[in-house]
Amino acid sequence: MTDSLAVRGIPANLKSYVCIEVFDREKPVLLVSREDGDWCFLCGAGHPDDAAFYRVVGIGHPVGDDPTLAEVLDLDVDVEAERTAVGSRWSRTRL
Known about the structure:
Elements: H1 2-7, E1 15-19, H2 20-23, E2 31-33, E3 39-42, E4 54-58, H3 60-65, E5 79-82, E6 91-94
Parallel strand pairs: 1-3
Antiparallel strand pairs: 1-4, 2-3, 2-5, 5-6
């Protein structure tokens, strides 16, 4: 986990956002975005634009829980990556 972050110069305590399902480990991360530079790790389900549905964590937490997220740590600002399941191919889209 820290190796994939360190290689890219990303501190493990860098602020990121996760939806509550990812935070509670009920669902995997299927959508990663960097809107305005903020890292978001989401389950892909629709959530209201309400802070109650999200948690702030160090980026090391989601990457530590799912090492396949290392595949998108090179994501540019204002780009998102989506997949259908853990281990499936990521599809990148400009926001």
